[in-house]
Write a structure and sequence with these properties.
The complex is a heterodimer of chains A (180) and B (246). Chain A is of the alpha+beta class. Chain A is 39% helix and 22% strand. Chain A contains 7 helices and 7 strands. In chain A, strands 3-4-5-6-7 form a 5-stranded antiparallel beta sheet. Chain A is globular, with a radius of gyration of 19 Å. Chain B is of the alpha+beta class and 246 residues long. A 9-stranded antiparallel beta sheet of chain B has the order 2-3-4-5-1-6-11-10-9, with helices on one face. Strand 1 of chain A pairs parallel with strand 8 of chain B.
Chain lengths: 180, 246
């Protein structure tokens, strides 16, 4: 009788990525596609739809894909070395840990960051975008966090986020969401 | 018609209604913008729905182009999403889920505004899709016997170790009727939200394709698909799962 024992979270996410390319938006294998297609049209966020004949572009599946990729991007930052950009420090464990925690909160809030990138100020940035408007939350190596909004008609805004406050990231996302 | 049970802790993380349309005239983003204006008070957030066209030929290799194929309109909490496209309409309701009647009525209200501008002639495909997340207690990492919670689950040959670290099960069933429908059921492991829990995704998608139905008839089919979806859900889970979500 099959017993499901969830692997440690990190392993499970890695297994997930290899598990089914249709879910995670990777190139489907030839076995799934059949004959190579000359002219394939996919909705960017609907590979699940195309492959699995699902009814709708699932927001849930799309977000799972998105956050899987963002966690991967964050994990890749472990490999950065000091001087990756002129004399900028690589993101520290502290900055990466805070960014990871923030991703979980943002996911819970239905936020959709577009990227996780190293910060030129030393740290990790979680980026948001809607057309010409941008938002980012930066977790610096010294433990501070800042938010920045720009590109909208109201002009740029920046503020410090007190990570010690329980709802600080929730409030930051609320402000970013309104701006975007 | 199956009996419609209501669970206080329904594990639904997303419910969606989908209609693919045929129009008498080509649709445009200007028209969709008019739809957006009708919905802007309830769905103020707008995001583009991007269509990627990729082409592979021996002479040019891989080429691709992107274009906007519609808009995703979201409520401020981003829990209700209307996908208004050049080829169809999708309405998604994310957790917390309310009731079918609330989902259907809101989807229909938004659809009616979409249809009033785009004038679909026929519906070629309709679907009702519910994605459930079953969080099953698993203390000390002992795991859970899938058969205890699911009546449809992977079966491992007894000669093999029975501990699964991950799994993916997906199948499609033809449902006889007029018109014939399809049921796609997907089960897979999810990353748990809390410790001492294992999470299982149960994705049930009931749909009819190859249709040439008038919009009114399509909404009647949607009601039938909801019954098929409910039957599938009740058939897939056990009393132990019912106890968890009651």
């Amino acid at each position: 009788m099959a017993v499901f024992v969830a692997a440690p979270i990190a392993d499970l996410m890695n297994v997930d990525k290899r598990r089914h390319p249709a879910i995670f938006g990777e190139a489907p294998s030839s076995g799934q596609l059949g004959e190579p297609q000359i002219d394939a049209i996919y909705l960017l966020d609907a590979i699940y739809l195309g492959e699995l004949q699902a009814s709708a572009t699932s927001e849930t599946i799309r977000r799972e894909q998105l956050y899987s990729k963002l966690r991967d991007d964050l994990r890749l930052l472990e490999r950065l070395e000091a001087g990756w950009e002129h004399e900028v420090e690589a993101p520290t464990h502290l900055a990466r840990r805070e960014a990871e925690r923030a991703l979980e909160i943002f996911k819970h809030l239905n936020a959709e960051p577009v990227a996780v990138l190293p910060s030129v100020d030393g740290g990790v940035g979680i980026c948001f975008n809607n057309r010409e408007k941008y938002g980012q939350v930066e977790f610096l190596n010294n433990g501070e966090a800042h938010a920045l909004l720009y590109g909208g008609p109201v002009g740029a805004q920046a503020w410090q986020i007190n990570l010690g406050e329980t709802n600080a990231l929730r409030e930051a996302w609320k402000r970013i969401s309104v701006y975007l | 018609m199956t009996s419609q049970k209501h669970y206080a802790k329904a594990p639904i993380v997303e419910a969606a209604i989908d209609l693919r349309c045929k129009f008498s005239e080509e649709q445009s983003l200007d028209k969709l913008e008019r739809v957006r204006q009708l919905l802007v008070s309830d769905y103020p957030i707008k995001e583009d729905l991007i269509l990627l066209k990729a082409q592979i030929t021996p002479s040019t290799g891989l080429t691709s182009e992107q274009k906007i194929a519609g808009f995703r309109l979201l409520t401020p909490e981003r829990t209700k999403i209307a996908g208004i496209g050049l080829e169809g309409f999708t309405f998604s309701w994310l957790a917390p889920y309310d009731r079918w009647e609330a989902l259907r009525d809101e989807a229909f209200r938004v659809w009616a505004l979409y249809a009033s501008v785009t004038n679909p002639v026929n519906i070629s495909r309709v679907g009702v899709r519910f994605i459930n997340r079953l969080d099953v207690p698993s203390s000390n990492g002992a795991g859970v016997e899938l058969d205890q919670y699911l009546r449809t689950a992977p079966r491992i040959a007894p000669e093999l170790p029975q501990q699964l670290e991950s799994f993916f099960l997906r199948f499609q069933i033809l449902i006889a009727g007029e018109p014939a429908a399809n049921l796609t059921i997907t089960e897979t492991a999810m990353v748990p939200l809390t410790p001492n829990v294992v999470s299982i995704l149960l994705d049930i998608d009931a749909f009819v394709q190859g249709l040439e139905a008038k919009p009114e008839a399509a909404w009647q089919i949607i009601e039938r698909l909801r019954d098929e979806k409910n039957l599938a859900f009740e058939s897939c889970i056990t009393d132990a799962t019912r106890k968890l979500i009651r």
